[in-house]
From TrEMBL:
PROSITE patterns: PDEASE_I_1, PDEASE_I_2. This is 3',5'-cyclic-AMP phosphodiesterase. It catalyses: 3',5'-cyclic AMP + H2O = AMP + H(+). The lineage of its organism: Eukaryota, Metazoa, Chordata, Craniata, Vertebrata. The active site is at residue 67. AMP binds at residues 67-71, 108, 217, 268. SUPFAM superfamilies: HD-domain/PDEase-like. One of its GO terms (biological process) is signal transduction.
Length: 341
């Protein structure tokens, strides 16, 4: 039974999604709400919870190679692992746990499969609605609030409680905006250097939940190679699709979206080096050298080495092809596929 292993870092979300018939998000969350005693604590109605989770799951676009309900389920499973880290677990309230899981599940809901700059330059209505600031994240949050209210999942709780839950959900989901990466890293570094995190305080707990969600959202490179590699291929496929759209509309092709120039290994190495490593090294500093943090950093280093070796192979194979002209994008892709260990 896969659910008995839901707290293990090597949990295979792709297999779980196949076994649940594409219902990984709903199945996982129903289980986790039970495991964490949230049904009982908040006196939730199982049928209403299920209906709400189906709304969330169905609001993800299954056509997106990356930003789909399986990514949401993956982030939620990672969040569950992080919530169990002793440094955090010892202080968390049922509210914190429910917020962490809900934010993880809904953090990319109704994602269009293109990024914020694309929405801005195509004058998408969401860009004007949110005045070009955290456009996608604001939309994910407001969509989540809409579904929460419509489902009446929390309608039996006092109004002040539900208002607080809605605001905190927003603050958590908005923290996943990658444009705010440095802001959060600087704050985390300062807290760790000053050793002034007081997890008895709701504010500090909320900040660490934001960090946990940010980690969960970009934890793909810290997974087993076979899982990690699938996520890398999916996210790059989504980038390339955006690049194709941009070419079609005669717009400038965004960074990382040019299939001819931006190869999967190079995109991944950059992402790991500048975004993932700095965050996860700080996270490990926060948790202390727990088995999970050590495991994640080990996977991260091994996976980066794998991409480096694939990058070198790619370079040497394109050099050997130089006499017959440049390697085309499609040739490069077949090379990628063939070289995958």
């Amino acid at each position: 039974h896969m659910l008995s292993k839901v707290g293990m870092w090597d949990f295979d979300i792709f297999l779980f999604d196949r076994l649940t018939n594409g219902n990984s998000l709903v199945t996982l969350l129903c289980h986790l709400f039970n495991v964490h005693g949230l049904i009982h604590h908040f006196q939730l109605d199982m049928v209403t919870l299920h209906r709400f989770l189906v709304m969330v799951q169905e609001d993800y676009h299954s056509q997106n190679p990356y930003h789909n309900a399986v990514h949401a389920a993956d982030v939620t499973q990672a969040m569950h692992c992080y919530l169990r880290e002793p440094k955090l677990a010892n202080f968390l309230t049922p509210s914190d746990i429910m917020l962490g899981l809900l934010a993880a599940a809904a953090h990319d809901v109704d994602h269009p499969g293109v990024n914020q700059p694309f929405l801005i330059k195509t004058k998408h209505h969401l860009a004007s609605l949110y005045q070009n600031v955290s456009v996608l994240e604001n939309h994910h949050w407001r969509s989540t609030i809409g579904m929460l209210r419509e489902s009446r999942l929390l309608a039996h709780l006092p109004k002040e409680v539900t208002q607080d839950i809605e605001q905190q959900l927003g603050s958590l989901i908005l923290a996943t905006d990658i444009n705010r990466q440095n802001e959060f890293l600087i704050r985390l570094k300062s807290h760790l250097d000053n050793q002034d995190l007081r997890l008895e305080d709701a504010q500090d707990r909320h900040f660490m939940l934001q960090i946990a969600l940010k980690c969960a959202d970009i934890c793909n490179p810290c997974r087993l190679w076979d899982l990690s590699k699938q996520w890398s291929e999916r996210v790059c496929e989504e980038f390339y699709r955006q690049g194709d759209l941009e070419q079609k509309f005669e717009l400038e092709v965004s960074p990382l979206c040019n299939q001819q120039k931006d190869t999967i290994p190079s995109i991944q190495i950059g992402f790991m080096t500048y975004i993932v490593e700095p965050l996860f090294e700080r996270w490990a500093q926060f948790t202390g050298d727990t088995p999970l943090s050590e495991n994640m950093l080990n996977h991260l280093r091994r996976n980066k080495a794998k991409w480096r070796s694939l990058l070198h192979k790619q370079h040497s194979s394109s050099r050997s092809n130089d006499h017959s002209g440049q390697v085309t994008g499609s040739q490069e892709q077949t090379l990628n596929k063939e070289e995958t260990p």
